[in-house]
Amino acid sequence: MVAGGKKLLLIKLAYIGDTVSLLPVVENLMEKAPYHTVDVMVNGGSEELLAHHPGIRKVWGYDRRRAKRTVFSSLAYHASIISRLRVERYDMVIDYTYGDRSSFLSFMTGARQRITYQSTNTFSRILMTHFIPLDPLKYHIVDCHLESLKPLGIHDFDRKMTMHLPHAVLSETDQRLHNSGIAPGRTKVVIHPGARKRLREWRPERFGEIGRRLKELYQAAIILIGGPGDEVSVENAERAMGFKADFKSTELSLIDLAALLKRSHLFIGNDSGPGHIAAAVHCPTVTLFGSTYPHIWRPLNPEGEVVFKNVPCCGCRQETCIRPEANCMDLIEVEDVWEKVAKLLKQHEVEPFP
Fold first, then answer.
1. pLDDT of residue 4
2. Are residues 238 and 312 in the same domain?
3. Three-class SS of residue 322?
4. Cα separation, 260 vs 177, whole angstroms
5. What total of structural domains would you count in the chain?
């Protein structure tokens, strides 16, 4: 650590998109306050998305399974991780999680300054020392995160984000595409029909219709992707296209998915982690929103489009639907999405074949 700089720990124990949302914070710290040392703690499994960023010294992967397996396992795990955290002697912890567990870890680091948002719960307010007076329902998640840098004297924020990928991973992706018969110059479109919750999913057959048009009109290479649990959605989308995808996988690591998106011309998917990864590697995005608000969660992408119907019950917990006969995702028609897809392709001078 440079003399006069602070040793910082950023904590975000949430989902893939949340992990990606830390990138602008790191970028601003690296460019505007490079004398600080920055470590990050995220849920295990997503740390590889940040591991190669030059502005991050160390990425901690928090093992949620071990932390919740049994009482004994949780105690043993937390005792171990707290011991290692205290060795680091952090000056400041910024917790972006809005949760008891992360506030407890923040407190146990021994850092004198512990920052979170004013809207947090009572337990967290007892454990933390500084609070950011910002309503998280009114701002994009990235803007909320950047507000936390004001105590460090940083006020002029840049909202850009960049995910750094190793050359070896990009080379492996190029080889994977080559082995699938996809030429480097061919228009490549990634479609992700899954989502973390079922009520966020657009019908797979509608994604299939989008893929069919892209193949028929643009001769695009159609790439279907998903994570664990998305297998049925991916298969149904492929079946609806009426032909095999040029490449299909539900088993890519997150870093491999990022490299695939970096090599692609367009991403189409529901409000879910892959859309945020696409934005971070500067792949244009079309993201479908239903029960969540795009002004808070849209991928932070200057070349990003969203489709959103803004039903009165938007913001629900996505556990049950009070309007199953016309839910928010079903209200999105194929033409709504196709209009955005055609617009982005035209902006990139990708024209339909005659």
1. 65
2. yes
3. coil
4. 9
5. 2
- Report helix, strand or coil for 216: helix
Q: Which of the listed residues 152, 186, 213 is the one where a domain comes to its end?
A: 152
Q: What angle do CA 295, 298, 304 make, to 5 degrees?
A: 115
CA Rg, the chain, in Å?
21
Residues forming beta bridges with residue 308, ordered by sequence position: 289
Q: What is the pLDDT averaged over residues 140-157?
A: 93
Residues 309 and 220 in one domain: yes
Residue 71 predicted with pLDDT over 60? yes
pLDDT exceeds cutoff 90 at 197 = no
Residue 14 near residue 43 (C-beta atoms within 8 A)? yes
Q: Angle CA(47)–CA(52)–CA(58) in degrees, nearest 5?
A: 60
Q: How confident is the model at residue 2 (pLDDT cuts 50, 70, 90)?
A: very low
Angle between helices 254-262 and 273-280 (to 10 degrees): 50
**Domain with 32 in it:** 7-152
Task: Answer for the pair 309, 332: CB distance below 8 angstroms, yes or no.
Answer: yes
Partner residues linked to 221 by β-bridges: 188
